[in-house]
Amino acid sequence: MSKRLETEFCGKVFKNPVLLASGTCGFGREMNEYFDIEKLGGICSKGLTLHARNGNEGIRIWETPSGVINSIGLENPGVDYYIENDLPWIQGKNLVNLVNVGGHSMEDYIEAVQKFNDQDVDFIELNISCPNVKAGGMNFGVKTEVAREVVRTIRGVCKHKMIVKLSPNAESIVDLAKACEEEGADAVSLTNTYLAMAIDLEHRKPVFNNTYAGLSGPAIKPISLRMVHQVAHAVKIPVIGIGGIATAEDALEYIMAGASLVQIGAASFVKPDIAMDVIDGMESWLEKHDVGNISEIRGIV
Predict the structure, then answer these.
(1) Mind listing the pLDDT tens digit for each residue in 134-144?
(2) Phi then psi for 253, rounded to 5 degrees?
(3) Do residues 47 and 127 lie in contact, with contact meaning Cβ atoms separated by under 8 Å?
(4) pTM recorded for the entire structure
(5) Residue-number span of the structural domain to which 146 is assigned
(6) Is residue 118, in this structure, part of any structural domain at all?
(7) Which ranges of 135-247 does DSSP label H, i.e. alpha helix?
(8) Active-site residue among 44, 130, 158, 180?
(9) Quick one: which H or E segment has residue 212?
(10) To pair with 263 at 20 to 30 A between CA atoms, which of 12, 100, 107, 193?
């Protein structure tokens, strides 16, 4: 493989700009059974919270035309378990490790992030799409000023480079990104899933116990692409593009829109090694169009 796909991001060199998105690849072991994950640029851990969570009850996955709705509920083993059992394994791999951290209160965020301060991780990807239990369940990432407070506070205690993962359900995705930048985020990733709903006609009730859940997959790509374009042209920090990427062409569109890296999520459920197709396809496209390095086409649209 040439260095056409090599990407510098926040001072870290990625062998290629393709990552697996949080919540769709576990902690890496699962996907490594299907392909050599060291061929990826990086991997984003499943969302971790301070304490272990069992996740939501009832139906968790519901397929839709060109997408999937999930209501997993951040099921995870907790930060301490991950550090003891999964982190050493991923540290032994030659790829960039992004640890996704969430919380349901400011105190949870702070303590969870602090536990990683003495650990060898490359980035903390801060998930601010979590519901704030002390504010009636409103997501931290919906209102710009609430998100600003979270980022400012966590930046003050986080010793690692920090990427803030943005929710498309925010009042203003551009204002949200700017606030994150102003409060010290090293980068932003977007978008997280879109608030969605499905109805069980036979039982005449919502499919999900929580009524609403998160939509991802090809259906969201045009909207997420637009948001990435808007944000990338509004902030100076680098952007990671997420949403409906299933082909090399999809990934290249995000790069042209201004993203430095991309994350593949729902498409891996259809074909676990689809990231390899994306990487190979991007390499072929750059070679065919005589592009020496992918940075040459970043943000050209």
Answers:
(1) 766 668 999 99
(2) -60, -45
(3) yes
(4) 0.97
(5) 7-55+74-194+215-297
(6) yes
(7) 144-157, 173-182, 221-232
(8) 130
(9) strand 212-216
(10) 107
- What pLDDT does 1 receive? 64
- In sequence order, the 6+-apart residues with CB closer than 8 A to the CB of 161 are 10, 11, 12, 122, 123, 124, 186, 187
Q: Rg of the chain over CA atoms, in angstroms?
A: 18
Longest dimension (CA), the chain: 57
The helix (run of H) or strand (run of E) holding residue 179 is helix 173-182
Q: What's the CA gap between 109 and 100, in Å, rounded?
A: 11
The per-residue pLDDT for range 10-21, each reduced to its tens digit, is 999 999 999 999
State the DSSP code for 39.
G
Q: Looking at the domain assignment, is residue 38 inside a domain?
A: yes
| Structural domain contains residue 207 | no
Q: Is residue 115 part of a domain?
A: yes
Catalytic site includes residue 130: yes
Task: Please tell me the distance from the alpha carbon of residue 43 to that of residue 264, in angstroms, as a whole number.
Answer: 10
CATH of the domain at 170: 3.20.20.70
Torsion (CA) 236, 238, 239, 240 in degrees, nearest 10: 180
- Rounded CA-CA distance 58/299 in Å is 42
- At 89, phi and psi to the nearest 5? -65, -45
User: What is the number of structural domains in the chain?
Assistant: 1
- The residue assigned the tokens 């649209």 is 301
The residues that bridge with 187 in the sheet, in sequence order, are: 163
Q: Quote the tokens at residue 111.
A: 């303590």
